[in-house]
């Protein structure tokens, strides 16, 4: 703030100066009052303003009271007035000529002339008459009157100093007169006699070099100047220039030739300044030289300008060589005259390589052959017509490659409009071209992708005018793109307006208008008419594209044909209604559960049967599944239901069970529940679907039927006494035959010589065992028909199997056959009658051995394994097979000549009594297989 205030004090006068002082005083007083009245930050700001005003007042006082400052102000005002030769010269317009001291008027005129010719401002002083009649020295600055592009120091002279003039002009009167004429024109002039002694020097020149006539003419040695001596003026010449200046002047003095020279002259300020010196001799009537007159022109501006131009030219050359572009020039006829360094480095070309033999331009070494003809035609046309040159081509590079380049050239014309030179620049646009090519490819791909998208893409202006439809949308609406009478926007808008269903039009346009005004996204469903007249449902959505300030640039939208989807959805809803009606009308109780078993759906019938909803049994601390099961399952059945249902949830196996279910009135009813898992494509369980059938009546009927069957079974047993007798005989016959055979063997061991008592002892043990077995068979058969299970115990089936194999091993060896047994590890123990199951196994093994008897060799394979809730046992032979597998279990049916036909019938009865099943089948590779299963859980446990 102080700088502009100081400037105001420097230039202000009269009323403006008084107003400035008044404003400062008012600002000072106001700030002081505010500082007193308002504490805190306001007081600090006010005190700061008081200090600033005080400093400004001090600056003003110093500037206004300093006379040199006032003189500087006058000089500054004078600098604004250009000095013109002739007329009033450099006298200021606001100063009357009569107010200037008469002795100073010539000095002012000389300063103005010298400033004009040299371009160097002249600062001089003159006496100005005051209102009281006295004179006061005032400083004047004379400007050249034209702009100077370099900085030069002003030359200062003060005419109030003593002017020195030679006491006697001698023969140089004519030379002095000529010098004064030059002085009136150029501002500086001088005269000297034939020996080189000065007789007159312009006072301003004496002051500028701080040398009077006696100083200039002072001899510094014994010899005269013309004879090679040194004089005083030589001390004012630069040491590097003094010898040349003195030598040329002596030569001119002796020969009379004009003296023209440039050298540096020492000013009173201590600076050397370049001057251009010219001198001519004056002669008398006989041609004898009477004197010399001359002038010195300050050419410091010229020299500095010349140096600046050379520096600027050097800088320009460096700029042209370092600019990242290839610059060149040609003559008006199109001949190459300049290549910058970059174009030579990049292309490897020189002026010689781009010139033909006749000096014309040759582009063959710089341009790809495919562009030679185009480049030459374009270049020739530009040179002939003067039109700017512009071409894109592949330019050769120093490394041998070609890169896309754009070359532009403009003609430089003179004032008459004639072309004097061509200037051009070549810019590497290879990356731009490749990028544009890539962008064009991407644009084509994007356009193709947009056209291939199975939806309708469109764009709206911020005002809602459509300005883009993709190809699929255009084809859908049937827009004629060949119609040029209307603009694209008009065609799109008309087609869209005509395509919207009349029932949807008002709703659609109202929604679009609201979105355009609010900027919120657009989303709705409506019907559009296809080009064939069919209306299709659309799902339209649009989002605005915003600029950095939040203004809408465009609206981008997508319309998807959902007509088929809506029809499918309607069909699905109809199907769902039908399925729901089907579920609700089925005579069964249906429910659904989540993968973890939590109930998620109940049919109306099930809800009515139970009398409560899905959420009614939800309680804190337990799951919905637990609460529901405890509320509807009979307490005696609940553990089994939880166990089996939990196993199904863990393994994914179907669930099936009969249990009692609590009805809404509190009565428990028998139901059969079946549940299966519904899986997705990956096999993961997504839902459990279940159904309950009420079987209360069936259970009651089954109980009555069971009692009836028991009574019938007892009657059948009494009626089949003969069959039982035959069965007993058949079963007892086997151990008795073994007793007889072992007795004969014992007899042989005892009658041998010597008697084999050890073998006889073993045979006796076998006789005892077979006898006991016969007794057991009789007892077990009797127990069978008494329906008793007192002899059943938990027994490992593999142990019974191995005992049966041991019983038949000797007989198999006798028949040259082998029995192989395979038992799965980890089989559970079964509750069964050990003797009866052993008798079944022995009977099956013996039948297998007898079936393989014709071959006299073979392997009988017995295998036992777990099959779900049963243990499966297979006895496979390699005999002839069975002609009627189902008939062999009938009583008195036998395939053996001496067989009774009761063994397999009794075996099936034993297995079925244990809750299992016995059947026969033929092997694929020959032979027969007898298979029976025994439950892991005994029938008695199940009944209990």
Characterization of the model:
With about 950 residues, the chain is α+β, with helices and mostly antiparallel strands. About 45% of the residues lie in helices and about 25% in strands. The chain is built from 27 helices and 30 strands. The strands form seven sheets. A five-stranded antiparallel beta sheet has the order 5-4-8-7-6, with helices on both faces. Strands 10-9-13-12-11 form a five-stranded antiparallel beta sheet. Strands 15-14-18-17-16 form a five-stranded antiparallel beta sheet, sandwiched between helices. Strand 21 (about 655-660) and strand 22 (about 670-680) form a beta hairpin. It is elongated, with a radius of gyration of 67 Å.
Strand order of the largest sheet: 5-4-8-7-6
Unreliable segments of 5+ consecutive residues: 66-89, 716-722, 939-944
> Biggest sheet, in brief?
5 strands, antiparallel
Mean pLDDT: 81
Structural class: alpha+beta
Total count of helical runs of at least 4 residues:
27
Cα distance spanning the termini: 115 Å
Strand content: 15-25%
Shape label: elongated
Can you count the beta strands?
30
Radius of gyration: 67 Å
Give the % helix: 40-55%
Strand and helix map with partners:
Elements: H1 2-11, H2 14-37, H3 41-65, H4 67-79, H5 102-118, E1 122-129, E2 135-142, E3 155-157, H6 173-186, E4 190-192, E5 198-201, H7 203-209, H8 213-217, H9 239-255, E6 259-266, E7 272-283, E8 289-298, H10 300-322, E9 326-331, E10 336-339, H11 341-347, H12 372-385, E11 389-396, E12 402-413, E13 419-428, H13 430-452, E14 456-460, E15 466-469, H14 471-477, H15 488-499, H16 502-518, E16 522-529, E17 535-546, E18 552-561, H17 563-585, E19 589-593, E20 599-602, H18 604-610, H19 624-632, H20 638-651, E21 655-662, E22 668-679, E23 685-694, H21 696-719, H22 721-751, H23 757-785, E24 792-795, H24 797-814, E25 818-823, E26 830-833, H25 834-851, E27 859-867, E28 870-876, H26 903-913, E29 917-922, E30 928-935, H27 939-943
Helix pairs in contact: 1-3, 2-3, 5-6, 22-23, 24-25, 25-26
């Amino acid at each position: 703030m102080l700088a502009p205030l100081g400037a105001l004090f420097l230039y202000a006068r009269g009323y403006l100066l008084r107003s400035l002082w008044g404003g400062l005083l008012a600002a000072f007083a106001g700030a002081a009052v505010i500082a007193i009245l308002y504490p805190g930050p306001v007081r600090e700001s006010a005190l700061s303003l008081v200090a600033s005003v005080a400093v400004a007042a001090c600056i003003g006082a110093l500037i206004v009271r300093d006379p040199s400052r006032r003189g500087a102000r006058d000089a500054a005002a004078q600098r604004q007035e250009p000095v013109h030769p002739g007329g009033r010269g450099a006298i200021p317009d606001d100063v009357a000529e009569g107010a200037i001291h008469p002795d100073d008027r010539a000095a002012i005129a000389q300063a103005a002339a010298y400033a004009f010719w040299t371009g160097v401002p002249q600062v001089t002083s003159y006496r100005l008459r005051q209102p009281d009649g006295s004179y006061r020295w005032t400083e004047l600055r004379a400007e050249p009157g034209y702009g100077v592009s370099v900085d030069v120091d002003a030359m200062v002279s003060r005419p109030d100093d003593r002017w020195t003039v030679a006491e006697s002009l001698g023969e140089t009167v004519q030379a002095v007169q000529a010098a004064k004429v030059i002085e009136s024109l150029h501002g500086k002039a001088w005269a000297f006699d034939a020996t080189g002694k000065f007789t007159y020097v312009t006072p301003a020149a004496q002051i500028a070099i701080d040398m009077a006539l006696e100083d200039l003419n002072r001899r510094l040695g014994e010899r005269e100047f013309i004879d090679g001596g040194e004089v005083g003026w030589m001390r004012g010449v630069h040491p590097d220039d003094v010898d040349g200046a003195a030598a040329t002047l002596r030569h001119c003095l002796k020969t009379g030739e004009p003296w023209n020279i440039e050298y540096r002259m020492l000013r009173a300020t201590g600076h050397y300044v370049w001057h251009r010196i010219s001198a001519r001799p004056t002669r008398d009537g006989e041609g004898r030289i009477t004197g010399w007159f001359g002038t010195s022109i300050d050419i410091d501006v010229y020299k500095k300008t010349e140096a600046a131009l050379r520096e600027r030219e050097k800088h320009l050359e460096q700029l042209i060589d370092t600019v990242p572009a290839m610059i060149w020039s040609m003559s008006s006829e199109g001949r190459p005259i300049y290549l910058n360094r970059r174009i030579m480095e990049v292309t490897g070309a020189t002026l010689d390589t781009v010139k033909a033999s006749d000096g014309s331009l040759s582009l063959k070494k710089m341009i790809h052959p495919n562009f030679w003809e185009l480049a030459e035609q374009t270049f020739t046309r530009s040179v002939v017509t003067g039109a700017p040159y512009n071409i894109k081509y592949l330019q050769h590079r120093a490394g041998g490659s070609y890169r896309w380049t754009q070359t532009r050239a403009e003609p430089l014309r003179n004032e008459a409009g004639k072309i004097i030179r061509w200037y051009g620049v070549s810019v590497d646009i290879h990356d731009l071209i490749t990028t544009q090519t890539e962008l064009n490819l991407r644009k084509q791909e994007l356009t193709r992708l947009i056209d291939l998208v199975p939806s309708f893409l469109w764009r709206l202006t911020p005002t809602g005018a459509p300005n883009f439809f993709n190809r699929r949308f255009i084809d859908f609406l049937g827009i004629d793109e060949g119609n040029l009478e209307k603009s694209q926007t008009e065609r799109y808008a008309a087609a869209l307006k005509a395509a919207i269903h009349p029932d949807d039009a008002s709703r659609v346009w109202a929604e679009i208008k609201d979105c355009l005004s609010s900027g919120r996204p657009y989303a709705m469903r409506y019907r559009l008419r296809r080009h064939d007249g069919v209306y299709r449902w659309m799902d339209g959505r649009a989002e605005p594209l915003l600029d950095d300030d939040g203004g809408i640039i465009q609206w981008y939208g997508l319309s998807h044909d959902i007509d088929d989807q809506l029809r499918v959805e309607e069909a699905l809803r109809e199907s769902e209604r039908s399925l729901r009606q089907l579920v609700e009308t089925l005579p069964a109780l249906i429910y659904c559960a989540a993968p973890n078993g939590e109930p998620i759906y109940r049919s109306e019938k099930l809800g009515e049967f139970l009398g409560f909803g899905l959420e009614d049994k939800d309680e804190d601390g337990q799951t919905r599944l637990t609460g529901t099961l405890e509320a509807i399952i009979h307490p005696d059945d609940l553990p089994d239901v939880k166990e089996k249902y939990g196993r199904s949830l863990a393994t994914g196996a179907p669930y099936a069970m009969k249990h009692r279910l609590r009805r809404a009135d509190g009565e428990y009813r028998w139901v059969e529940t079946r549940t299966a898992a519904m899986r997705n494509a990956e096999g993961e369980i997504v839902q459990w679907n279940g159904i309950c059938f009420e079987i209360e009546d069936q259970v009651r009927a089954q109980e009555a039927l069971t009692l009836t069957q028991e009574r019938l079974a007892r009657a059948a047993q009494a009626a089949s006494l003969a069959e039982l007798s035959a069965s007993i005989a058949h079963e007892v016959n086997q151990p008795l035959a073994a007793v007889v055979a072992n007795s004969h063997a014992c007899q042989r061991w005892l009658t041998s010589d010597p008697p084999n008592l050890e073998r006889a002892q073993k045979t006796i043990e076998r006789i005892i065992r077979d006898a006991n077995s016969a007794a057991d068979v009789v007892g077990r058969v009797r127990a069978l028909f008494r329906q008793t299970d007192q002899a059943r115990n938990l027994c490992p089936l593999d142990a019974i199997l191995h005992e049966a194999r041991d019983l038949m091993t000797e007989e198999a060896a006798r028949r040259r056959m082998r029995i192989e047994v395979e038992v799965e590890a980890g089989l559970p123990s079964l509750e069964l009658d050990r003797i009866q199951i052993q008798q079944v196994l022995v009977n099956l093994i013996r039948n297998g051995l007898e079936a393989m008897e014709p071959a006299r060799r073979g392997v009988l394979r017995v295998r036992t394994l777990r099959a779900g809730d049963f243990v499966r046992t297979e006895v496979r032979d390699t005999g002839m097979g069975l002609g009627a597998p189902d008939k062999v279990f009938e009583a008195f049916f036998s395939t053996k000549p001496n067989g009774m036909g009761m063994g397999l019938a009794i075996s099936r009865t034993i297995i079925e009594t244990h809750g299992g099943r016995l059947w026969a089948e033929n092997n694929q590779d020959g032979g027969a297989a007898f298979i029976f299963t025994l439950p892991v859980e005994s029938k008695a446990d199940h009944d209990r």
